[in-house]
Specification:
5 helices, alpha+beta, single chain, seven-stranded mixed β-sheet, Deoxyribonuclease I, Chain A, six-stranded mixed β-sheet
């Protein structure tokens, strides 16, 4: 399974998506900061599973229709930062889908996630991550889960990795930094969190019109998950 995650920077990079999906053979596309009212029903060979609706700029997930069957969708508003309360940039910060792999006859959960901005504390973002992962389990207890997106967590990633591991998940960073706009804030922002999956690689793709670089996650269901 190949999953691309991309923060479009207020929808500016939306025009790149068709070429991006086709070039890398993506099976699932997870977006952040997209204009949800302007998202097409399909991008390349991928079909829109769902887009959030409570804010103009939100989340969307697309999936390969000849590989997966859409089973269930769940979006969620997470604990708000002061930035969220005052400016209200995003109501729903997690969008998860349960997909049935037609050939393998197995289900997997994939989610697009966008954490609170850097004005919030890391402790709040950890709370959001933990809550989102717990909510995704409601889509299917014991199923493999992959949550990708903009975690807004450029420093103290080792502590975050430990906290995620204590919750039963693994955190994977890409092979190169994913944010370049401001000199003092450059680094890894876009992560993959998973359980029941072997993450073969997380690759940072070339930069487009967004200040975030897209990431490509290549994953397979773990042997433990197959045996469960």
């Amino acid at each position: 399974m190949k999953v691309i995650s991309y923060n479009l920077r207020k929808h500016r990079a939306a025009g790149e998506l068709t070429a991006l999906v086709q070039r890398h053979g993506a099976d699932v596309l997870c977006l952040q900061e997209c204009d949800t009212a302007d998202m097409p029903a399909s991008i390349g060979d991928l079909r829109l599973a769902e887009a959030t609706s409570r804010n103009r700029l939100g989340l969307a997930v697309y999936y390969r229709e000849n590989t997966f069957r859409l089973m269930e969708v769940r979006s969620m508003a997470l604990k708000k930062s002061m930035h969220d309360r005052v400016l209200k940039p995003a109501e729903e910060r997690m969008l998860g889908v349960r997909l049935h792999d037609i050939d393998e006859n197995r289900d997997v959960i994939v989610a697009s996630f966008h954490a609170a901005p850097l004005t919030a504390l890391n402790s709040l973002r950890r709370h959001q991550i933990r809550t989102a992962l717990t909510e995704l389990q409601q889509l299917g207890d014991g199923l493999p889960v992959l949550m990708v997106g903009d975690y807004n967590y450029p420093v103290f990633k080792e502590n975050l990795s430990q906290k995620v591991r204590e919750h039963g998940y693994e955190l994977n960073l890409s092979d190169a930094r994913t944010y370049t706009r401001y000199r003092f804030f450059r680094g890894h922002y876009d992560f993959a969190t998973s359980v029941g999956l072997e993450i073969d690689r997380v690759r940072t793709l070339p930069q487009g019109r967004s200040d975030h670089l897209p990431i490509l996650v290549t994953a397979t269901i773990s042997e433990a998950a197959k045996a469960a």
